[in-house]
Amino acid sequence: MKTIMPTQFRHFRRIHFLALIAASTSGLPTSSANAQGRMLAPDTISTGDVFGFSVTPDGETSFFVKSFGGREKLVLLKAEMQKGHWQKPETAPFSFSDGRFQDIDPVVSPDGKLVLFNSNRPLPGESATGDFNVWVSHKTRTGWGAPSVLSNAINSDSADIYAGMSLSGNVYFASRRAGGLGSLDLYVSKFENGNYQVPVNLGPEINSAGSDSNPYIAPDENYLIFASGRPNAKSFMVSFRVDGKWSSPVELPVRSDAAGSMFCPFVDNRSKTFYFARTRVENGKRIENIYHLPLSELKLDSLRTLVTSLSDYAGKYKIQPATGISTIEIWIKDGKLLGSADGQQTLQLELTSVPDQLLIVENGEKITFVRDDKKQVKSLKINMPDGEVTAVKQPG
Q1: In terms of C-beta density within 10 A (0-12 exposed, 13-18 middle, 19 or more buried), how is residue 17 classed?
Q2: Which has the closest alpha carbon to 225: 176, 276, 153?
């Protein structure tokens, strides 16, 4: 910690709370207070060795992975809905019951016309199994067609997994390919002029130095839910499209299992249901099942409002009049506001019930953001014991 000399104290006292800001989401209203979710169809589907649930838009057919308590044998299953109940599953027509290949992560496209999945089966022209690649099966009049490679532009010589598609045809997936920011990064391959383009890394706003994977992309690409190994992450992360850019991710209010982990998020937009899987290891065997909860319990609208507000606060502010430190910079990382005033002390802020107001945890003082006639943040104010400090937001 930097030592503050007596001659510096007067200036430091007025701006110390701005040195490095961390705004948490603890002020976010969550009436469901970290939803747990219910196990899906324990009589037919959640048999203790399944994950990766996806359902067709009409709600009549589902696909998921049977893991047999490990990761050696991985087979895709298909189940049909009859009279409100999921029936006994059977091997998906594009997988193999003997597990000759490892098939995982089936994701139905928003229009229901195809299923994306990942497999280590040999690529066309090859005889040996390899890393996971993205495959596709198209729906036909008689069922589901023979699988084929989705696109050579997407697959790499590293593992490419958990691919999902938007209504535009853009494919979001995770990959271990070279050049990533972490051990596993999220990418998008845009579908343009009938062809998939070279995948683009979603960048440091989404990807961390850890592992980021299992992306669920909303049909209109308005939000992205994914699993993340970033420090202190306790749930799925969600990022929203704000002004054409991805917002910094924030956690979903879904309770994590202390004995295991959560993965494979999927949203059924017809029934407004959120599906995911939990996995844990007991006595060397994986125990994993599929869970579901109402989409409303994710509080997506509230989270969108939150990240939009946080984006509004980010930027550079000039203190007027200057009091030893003239510029405050605020930015977002991992769903939190970070700021600095000449790199001094670190303090934390929390949202309050008052719009555009943040609480300084260490001293109870409040920061208020002021908006102009166009609802844009133009300045911030802090009421200190010895007077009010004002800082004006700078362009750009």
Answers
A1: buried
A2: 276
**What tens digit of pLDDT does each residue of 31-88 get?**
334 678 999 999 999 999 999 999 999 999 999 999 999 999 999 999 999 999 999 9
Domains and CATH numbers, the chain: 6-28+307-393 (2.40.128.50), 38-298 (2.115.10.20)
Structure tokens of 230? 């970033």
d(CA 202, CA 180): 10
The SS3 call for residue 32 is coil
How many CA atoms within 13 Å lie on the side-chain side of 117? 32
Number of H helices, E strands in the chain: 2, 34
Instruction: Please say whether the beta carbons of 214 and 162 come within 8 A.
Output: yes
State how far the Cα of 56 lies from the Cα of 59, in Å rounded to an integer.
5
**Closest to 188 measured CA to CA, from 241, 251, 112:** 241
DSSP secondary structure letters along 111-132: TSSEEEEEE-SPPTT--S--S-
Q: Are 251 and 235 in contact (CB under 8 A)?
A: yes
Q: Which residues of 359-392 are buried (b: 16+ CB within 10 A; e: fewer)?
A: bbeeeebebbbeeeeeeebebbebeeeeeebebe
Distance CA 370, CA 393 (A): 10
Residues 6+ apart with CB under 8 A from 156: 175, 177
Give the span between the Cα atoms of 317 and 294, in whole angstroms: 41
**Which amino acid makes up residue 10?**
R
Please give the full DSSP string across 230-252, using - where no structure is assigned. Answer: STT--S-EEEEEETTEEPPPEE-
CB 52 within 8 A of CB 106: yes
What's the gap between Cα 177 and its chain centre? 20
Task: Give the model confidence (pLDDT) of 107-134 as tens digits.
Answer: 999 999 999 999 999 999 888 888 999 9
Please report which confidence band the pLDDT of residue 174 belongs to, taking 50, 70 and 90 as the band edges: very high
Q: Token digits for 165?
A: 């598609």
Work out the number of other CB atoms within 10 angstroms of the CB of residue 42.
12
Q: CA of 204: how far to CAs of 116, 119, 140, 215, 343, in Å?
A: 26, 28, 40, 15, 22
Pairing type for strands 21-24 and 347-351 reads parallel
Tally the C-alpha atoms within 13 A of residue 162's C-alpha that lie toward its C-beta: 23
Q: Taking the complete model, does pTM exceed 0.70, yes or no? A: yes
